[in-house]
Amino acid sequence: MEPLQESSEIVARHLVHIEMMLIAILVILTLGALALVYLFARMVKETRKAIGPTGVSHQFRDLMEKGEFDRIIELASQRISSHPNDAQTHWYLA
C-alpha cells in the first residue's frame, strides 16, 4: 500500500470512532435533558399537591366575600409564620 492510501484509511477509521463518540454524547445529553424535564414536572406536580386543590388565596377570597375578616387575619398570621415569603398572604393581611 502507498503511504497516502494507508493514512487515508487510518483517518477514515478515526472518523468512524469520532462519529460514534459524538452519537454517544448526544444520546447521553438527550437522556439527561429528558431526566431534568421529568424531575421538573414531578416537582411541579408535588408542589401543586401540597398547595391543595383550591389554594390559600381562594380560601382567603371566600372568607373575604363572607365578611369574615377576623378569620382572615387569624389564618394569614398563621400562614405568614410558616411561609414568610408568601406575598398574597401579606396582601390579604393588609
Structure, described:
With 94 residues, the protein is mainly α. It has 2 domains: 1-51; 52-94. Helices cover 86% and strands 0% of the residues. The chain has helices at 3-51, 56-66, 69-82, 87-93. Helix 2 packs antiparallel against helix 3. The chain is rod-shaped and about 95 Å long. It starts with a helix and ends with a helix. The model has no long low-confidence stretch (mean pLDDT 86).
Low-confidence stretches: none
Q: Spell the H/E element sequence.
A: HHHH
Largest beta-sheet characterization: none
What's the N-to-C terminus distance?
88 Å
Mean pLDDT: 86
Radius of gyration: 30 Å
Q: Given the structure, what is the number of helices?
A: 4
By DSSP, the count of extended strands is 0
Indicate the percent of residues in helices: over 70%
The dominant shape is rod-shaped
Instruction: Tally the structural domains.
Output: 2
Helix and strand arrangement:
Elements: H1 3-51, H2 56-66, H3 69-82, H4 87-93
Helix pairs in contact: 2-3, 3-4
